[in-house]
Amino acid sequence: MAQGDFNLENEWKYLIYRLGGELYGSPLLSVKEVIKVVKIKPVPYTVPHYRGIISLRGNIIGVVDLRIKFGLAPQENKYGGNVLIVENDEMMIGALVDDVDSVMALNKDDVDLNPAIETKIDTKFFIGIAKVEDSLINLIDIAGTLSNEDLKVISRNRGVL
Amino acid sequence: MVEKNEKYDMDIVKCFLSEGKELVDEFEHVLLDFDKGQKTPEVIGKLFRMMHNLKGASKTAGFSRLTDFCHSIENVLQNVRNGKLNPSKEVCSSLFKALDLLKAYIAGIGVDVNFTTDTSFIEKELKFITTATVMGEKGDQKSAIIMTMTQDSPVTKNVSTIESANANANAKPKTEVKDVVIGKLVEAPIAKIAVANNSNSISSIMEESIVEKGVITEDQIDKSFQIQKNGNGNSNGAGAGSNSAGTGAAGSVREEQIRVGLWRLDTLINFIGELIIYHSMIKERTSQLNIDDSILLEAISYMGKVVKEIQSISLSLRMIPIKSVFKKMQRTVRTIAELQNKRVNFITEGEDVELDKVVVDMIGDPLTHLIRNALDHGIETPEERIKKGKDPEATLTLKAEHKEGNVYITVKDDGRGIDRERVWNKAVEKGLVPASKKRDFTEDEMLRILTLPGFSTKEEVSEISGRGVGLDVVRTTIEGIKGNFWIDSTIDLGTTFYINIPLTLSIIEGMVISLENMKYVVPMGQLVETINNSRYITVSSAGKGRMINLRGEVIPVLDLAKMIHGSRCRSNDDGEEKPQADFSGLVINYGGRKVSLEVENVFSQQQIVIKNLGKELVDIPGIIGGFILGDGEAGLILNLPEIVKYNAHLIEKNSDKVAYN
């Protein structure tokens, strides 16, 4: 499946996770694995949402804090949560989330593709909002948003912590 | 890649290809020595034997035309050996030409076993030298004959042969070599036209064009061989094994060796890196859990020794001498000097210096460029040199040496030097620098302008260099392998290009330190000394700067944690007097003076396996790479001078105080 290629004819499986009390979902296939948060080592001179690096079986992988990236309040407990390991054409990168909820199959009727909401998320990578039972789920093309150019911007603020 | 073919036994062909390439490379090395004056019977005998072996291998593999070609080269060597033929410069030139064609031929076979190319024009030349010189004919007649025979050379036929081979080949992604070979042959007629126009420099122009292509072809061949290896997996392993046995049987005297694909080596080295990590994890865990089992602890400690041993062996596996690159340069110098009618004494030093294979592979192109630059821009013609009162024979030195854990490579000529004024004016003219800023540039910085993209002072774009894509590419390549490149030059005394590169890209000797309970590594090469929990008196000066008294020398103290962690620092920015009994710090050289960096703890010195960081971190200043510690935690390897530079305002603030003190 191409990243962000949301085909309404079919039913897609989404990984549902929490960020600041809200539910988010991303195509299951773009998430390679979910790991428990280990100590994240900050990297100087990077953008605020670049939380740092972790080691994953002998490789070093960067971790992006999705809360900060999506304009939510940063997580209070620094080491809580899960990291979704996302692989796209360019790289492998981790996405820090509060908690992984479930895997859900969503279809056409569940999803509002053009919701009237304001979000900090780049509309290119915002798939839509799914209504499931009583809750709303923000659907994000996570592989797309993490390969976004803003990762490469060096923060000129000295330090990130 | 070699296709299935009934006529040829693919296993034998594979052996032939790898052995052939080796023989041809070695032949080139020896021929260069020979050309430089080592015309001893041993050397000639060696050349003869190598060509004979190649002929034999080619015959075994079933390439009859190639066998014939080898035979004609062998004939020339035979006559030299018998003393019938005087090994003049011209003979050597012809042999070099033949060698280039051989290389292309073997590369062509690597692409398609049915590959053939027309060797007649060189064969005729070889035959001519053999007979002509033996019969005592004169040189000018020789050039006339070469002219005629080059004109009717069936180059077009060659191209079509290869193209059809191209079409026949299954759609495998190995067209690279084909293209190059075609490129080479397409280029050939141009050389020949040039020959027809200017009979005086027949051999030089012809050779130049072939070598020009030859250099590229060779690299491509290298690559294609690697691809072949990579893609071939196990079956190739067997082939490689039998190949080494084959060469052994062929009777050449050499240390027994086995060829291993680079990917295998890399995988091995990676796993050994992990082995080290897991070993330290076990070690740390046992001490955390207070395990007091002497047998277990002894085993862990012994294992540590073995692991270290394995690591040092594994790292040396990737190291190869820089010799192969230097030999190629000799060839380049010879060709260009001949083409430009310059007399050059080319000296190489430190050929046995070993570098990581990757570095050696990457250093070739920049070095070629620097050598060409020196020959084209730097070294004058003999007439000009005599006018200046210099030795008409210029000296060009290519030197490699170990220093401070790095390898320094210098390319030094005694030519006309670089005119900084001209560089400046040209740069202004090209809009690379603002004319008004001249005073801000130091002498060294003026030379740095040369490495800006799009700079070239040579008025006419020449064949050799001066396409305006030169030194900036050199610099980028060198910096790409974590090296430095700089230039020094004095008018009429010459120019020196300096390259400084790390020994290997995969490991450094590092000092483990901590900042705010997080571990970092600092390359040992950057440290002057470390201060570990010593009771140094902190000389506090009025205002903001903090100093320490290091054996009578007062040097500024910078808070490393603050510099890389930003606002979340321990020490407060007001710089109130903080008498610190336990000061741990690193002393580095920054811009010619000592600076100490305060850290939380200085732990131990150890070998650190450098791990690549993600693409997103490529441009972040102050970081060399990442590492994984014994507890499985990731960390950063810091580049201290760069961090200090990035925080230059801090040191400036402090250094005022130094002056004051």
Describe, in short, the structure shown:
The complex is a heterodimer of chains A (161) and B (661). Chain A has 161 residues and is mainly beta.
The CATH level-2 architecture of the largest domain in chain B is identified as: Up-down Bundle
Return the structural class of chain B: alpha+beta
* Total E-strand runs of chain A: 11
Q: Remind me, CATH topology of chain A? A: OB fold (Dihydrolipoamide Acetyltransferase, E2P)
Most strands sheet of chain A: 6 strands, mixed
Q: How many domain modules of chain A?
A: 1
Intertermini distance of chain B = 71 Å
Q: Could you tell me the mean pLDDT of chain A?
A: 77
Q: How many helical stretches of chain B? A: 20
Helices of chain A, by number, come to 2
Total discrete domains of chain B: 4
Order of helices and strands of chain A: EEEEEHEEEEEEH
Could you state the CATH homologous superfamily of the largest domain in chain B? HPT domain
What proportion of the residues of chain A form beta strands (DSSP E)?
35-45%
Q: Count of DSSP E strands of chain B? A: 18
Uncertain segments of chain B? 134-252, 459-469, 567-579, 653-661
Q: What overall form of chain A do the CA principal axes indicate? A: globular
Q: For the record, what CATH class of chain A applies?
A: Mainly Beta
**CATH fold title of the largest domain in chain B:** Four Helix Bundle (Hemerythrin (Met), subunit A)
Largest sheet of chain B: 6 strands, mixed
SSE layout and pairing:
The complex is a heterodimer of chains A (161) and B (661).
Chain A: E1 12-19, E2 22-27, E3 31-36, E4 50-56, E5 59-65, H1 66-69, E6 82-87, E7 92-97, E8 99-106, E9 111-112, E10 126-132, E11 135-140, H2 142-146
Parallel strand pairs in A: 2-11, 5-7
Antiparallel strand pairs in A: 1-2, 1-8, 3-6, 4-5, 6-7, 9-10, 10-11
Chain B: H1 10-35, H2 41-61, H3 64-82, H4 89-111, H5 120-135, H6 139-151, H7 155-168, H8 175-197, H9 202-249, H10 262-288, H11 294-317, E1 319-321, H12 323-339, E2 344-349, E3 354-356, H13 357-378, H14 382-387, E4 394-403, E5 406-413, H15 420-429, H16 443-448, H17 471-480, E6 484-490, E7 494-502, E8 507-515, E9 518-523, E10 527-534, E11 538-540, E12 546-550, E13 553-559, H18 560-565, E14 583-590, E15 593-599, E16 601-609, E17 623-628, E18 634-638, H19 640-646, H20 648-660
Parallel strand pairs in B: 2-4, 9-18, 13-15
Antiparallel strand pairs in B: 1-3, 4-5, 5-7, 6-7, 8-9, 8-16, 10-14, 11-12, 12-13, 14-15, 17-18
Helix pairs in contact in B: 1-2, 1-4, 1-9, 2-3, 3-4, 3-5, 4-5, 4-8, 4-9, 5-6, 6-8, 7-8, 8-9, 9-12, 10-11, 12-13, 13-17, 19-20
